[in-house]
Design goal:
The protein is of the alpha/beta class. Helix content is 30%, strand content 13%. The chain has a six-stranded mixed beta sheet. The longest helix is centred in the C-terminal third of the chain and has 17 residues. It is globular. 42% of the residues are buried.
C-alpha cells in the first residue's frame, strides 16, 4: 500500500487548500493556487467535534440535478444496501488523492450490497461547464461508480454544511442498510499507505473500509 510520491508531494505542498484549486494544477500535480472560496485547510484528517452527532441520523433525500454512470437513484431505491457518499470537486487535490481509494473499495465490495456515490459540487458554484469537466476528470481518475451533480451545493448543505462547524466540504458519509448514518469522515483526504508520514490518512481509510464491512448484513 504505497502512495505515489508525486501525490504525497502534491498534498503536502497544497496544505493551504481545502477542496479547491486550479484543475490544471491538479492534473499536472503541481501546487494549485488557493481559490477565492476556500478557507485555510485543516490537517488532512482533521475531525470536527460534532461529526459524530450525525451517527444514527436519517439523511434527507439528496437533490441531484444530473447523474453519470447510473440511472437516477433515490435513497429509497438503495434501502438494504450500504451507501458510501463522497462529496467531491474536480479542483481538489485531496479529492484526487482519495478517489483511487474509493475506486479500490468499490471493486473490493463489488459482489456485496454496497453502493458508492460521488456527489459533485462545483467551485466556484456557478462555473460554466463544471459538471461536464467533472465527468471527464472522473473518467481520467478511473471512477466508474455513480456520480451525481449536487448543483448549488443543495445536498452538501443539507447533509453536511448546515449540521455543524465544518472545516472542509469533502466529507464522506456512510449509510447503513436502513438509511441511517453509520460513519462520517469529515474530509479532506484518506488513502491506504504504509508510509509513516501518511499514517493518519491510512487510519482514516481503514476506518472507512471497516465501517462498510460492519454495515453489511451478517457481518462479523
Amino acid at each position: 500500500m504505497r502512495l505515489l510520491p508525486t501525490v504525497g508531494a502534491m498534498l503536502l505542498a497544497s496544505a493551504s487548500v481545502v477542496c479547491g484549486g486550479d484543475p490544471r494544477g491538479a492534473q499536472t500535480r503541481t501546487p494549485p493556487p488557493q481559490p477565492r472560496d476556500a478557507s485555510a485547510a485543516p490537517s488532512p484528517t482533521a475531525v470536527t467535534a460534532d461529526s459524530d452527532s450525525l451517527l444514527g441520523r436519517a439523511m434527507p433525500q439528496w437533490q441531484v440535478a444530473a447523474w453519470a454512470n447510473t440511472q437516477p437513484l433515490t435513497l429509497a431505491d438503495l434501502r438494504g444496501s450500504v451507501v458510501v457518499v463522497r462529496f467531491w470537486t474536480n479542483t481538489c487535490p485531496y479529492c484526487e488523492a482519495s478517489m483511487p481509494a474509493l475506486v479500490a473499495l468499490a471493486s473490493q465490495f463489488a459482489d456485496r450490497p454496497v453502493v458508492f456515490v460521488g456527489l459533485y459540487h462545483a467551485k466556484p458554484r456557478d462555473r460554466p461547464g463544471a459538471w461536464q469537466d467533472a465527468q471527464k476528470i472522473a473518467r481520467d481518475w478511473g471512477v466508474t461508480f455513480a456520480l451525481g451533480h449536487d448543483k448549488d451545493w443543495a445536498t452538501l448543505r443539507s447533509w453536511w454544511l448546515s449540521t455543524g462547524d465544518r472545516a472542509a466540504t469533502s466529507a464522506t458519509i456512510v449509510l447503513g442498510t436502513q438509511g441511517e448514518v453509520i460513519h462520517v469522515h469529515p474530509g479532506p483526504v484518506y488513502f491506504p499507505s504504509d508510509d509513516p508520514k501518511h499514517a493518519e490518512e491510512n487510519r482514516a481509510f481503514v476506518a472507512l473500509r471497516d465501517a462498510v464491512s460492519r454495515g453489511l448484513p451478517n457481518s462479523d
